[in-house]
Amino acid sequence: MEKITAIKGIKDILPEDAPTWNYIESIARQVFSAFGFREIRVPIMEKTELFKRSIGETTDIVEKEMYTFRDRDEELLTLRPEATASVIRAYIEHNMMSADQITKLFTIGPMFRRERPQKGRFRQFHQIDVELFGDDKPQSDAEVIFMLVHFLQSVAIEELSLEINSLGCKACRPVFSRAIVDYLKGSEKDLCPDCQRRIHTNPLRVFDCKIESCNSIIAGAPKILDYLCTGCSEHFSQVKSFLDDLNVGYLINPKMVRGLDYYTKTAFEIKSGSLGAQNSLAGGGRYDGLVSFLGGPEVPGIGFAVGFERLIACLPQTEINKFKTDIFIAALGSRAQKISFGLTNELRRAGISAAMDYADKSLKSQMKRADKLNSSFTLIFGDKEIDERRVELRDMKAKNQQVLSLDNLPEAIIDIFRKR
Ligand code: HAM
After folding, report:
1. Average pLDDT over every residue of 69-93
2. What distance in angstroms lies between residue 82's CA and the mean position of ligand 1's atoms?
3. Where are the domains of the chain?
4. In which order are the strands placed within the sheet that holds 160-166?
5. What CATH number has the domain spanning 325-418?
């Protein structure tokens, strides 16, 4: 039979990698809760309209990358390409603003984008996503960025570079858009077909173009920071000043527009030199008009998402992945096998990871297995030990052993682990 493989760009998270994922998630939960964020779990599927309206009809995500299908009742549904839209939908639907003026949420899970798979770019990938609603003050921008940097440092990411920009608001951005259109008009024919179209549909998206000839034209384009209104300009200076107060280093990148249309004012990205071409580790920004645009009240918002796979790719090689067993019980002969079976499961019930081999193999091959399972202790016994009612517990690291009585053996072992 021909084997069935996983879908291109969609990967398994293997048992040897799962501890790293769990470790990162536990750090995220710990760090975010210290900043007052609570977890929310939102569905992986939503009505297509939600993403079209929030991310923007003329973004690459909505135009080319969404997994959209018609349900059996003809409704158009989409596998979420990001989490912000779903979190806002839930925030509005459950009227969370009535519980508290400020709502801080985070969510962790898979996202889906039909991009061309390559190193660091997948069709199913995972994000750690954070959203803060109800505060339009620059302190919350700085707080969220500070928390992101602190989180990444807590999982031992070293080479970080934070880039920030301001994308203005609905008053000043259209002025900048017009300036970009005027600037590009002269060289329209030298732009790629996508950018030629973007001039008319969504001029700021030309900044996202990866094509070299477009990049060199865009290099001389007007800069959004020169077009900010007084309110946006003041907000941006204050964000910078609060970041300075928190000792967060940053670079200003006036060309960073982010790939989603909902941003206003502050936008930011974290890049890592160790990632190669797909070097964006995390990205986010403020989205002050989005909650009302999705049918909620006028509530400002700001957030970010970290790419889980890229975060793992940046991690220094650690011991986290190594599977460990607390104790391996090597039983020789049917009497020992019977006792071991009960003992192994008794220890597991007490939270000790215990293993044995049911095949009654030679001592040598059982010890090999103990080694493979990376066991901290081994207990070896056969008929002789049963007759003498005493067994040896070997500490594999310290390379010493102690003799235990076969009577109340589970209790004695549990006691040893408790005291470690
Ligand atoms: P984004 O920049 O589209 O923002 O994605 C955030 C992060 O997700 C990226 O920096 C990257 O690490 C990861 N990522 C994106 N696409 C892929 C892919 N195909 N394969 C692997 N990793 C990927 C957002 O999604 C916004 N919702 C962030 C946000 C939250 N803004 C405000 N709140």
Report:
1. 98
2. 7
3. 18-172+228-314, 325-418
4. 38-39, 103-112, 124-133, 301-307, 280-286, 264-272, 160-166, 251-252
5. 3.40.50.800
